[in-house]
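[Automated response] Your request has been received and processed.

Submitted sequence:
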Amino acid sequence: DTLILFSNRSHNFKKGGGKVDFYCFNISKKKLEWLNKDIEETGIGAVYTPQIVGDRVYYQGSNEVFMFDIATGAKIWSRRFPGESYYLTKHIIAENKIFMYNDGVGLRALDLNSGLTIWENNDANYDGGLVGGLCYHNSNIYFIGGDEGYAAIFGLRADTGKQFWKYRTPNYKKYPKSTFGYINMISDPETGYLYTGDGVFMMCLKPPK
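Generated structure:
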């Protein structure tokens, strides 16, 4: 059978706020397999497509994350991070971990199976509310974060969260408004090259190993 998994945000008239429901619809049989109602505490939700990992589906909310069993809809685990926000950057799943970027404040890695925290990195000044451009390649994580009033691309080791690289666009000396974070960043899965822009030029970068 072909299944479609998706969330829907609507108004919760009883609470006077929003609510987020999560659906599993069987396209082949044209029927609803299961529905989890009002799953988020905030009732706000996020805009990113759920990620399927084997027989599970991962949902990224506004400041909560969930793992559901696809067959039954049972919640395997969930985590909530009050005061944080996940609107600007989609989480990445790799190496049996979930890498989360808190809208330009810091990064953490969760265990995919349990949801427990493996590491957090808030040492550097990654703030700024930027488009994070979270990327993964060859056991490294790359993202855009704040850097002394500008923005830079940072590289962290996926297993430890330790920073090994920082790159600020060289164009800011000639173009004061040139900085990262205006547009997203993607990584070529074969070469590891990073593609982004600094508001003046489009760029292709080869990060160190």
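Summary generated for your ticket: The longest strand covers residues 3-12. The chain has a mean pLDDT of 88.
If you did not submit this request, please reply to this message.
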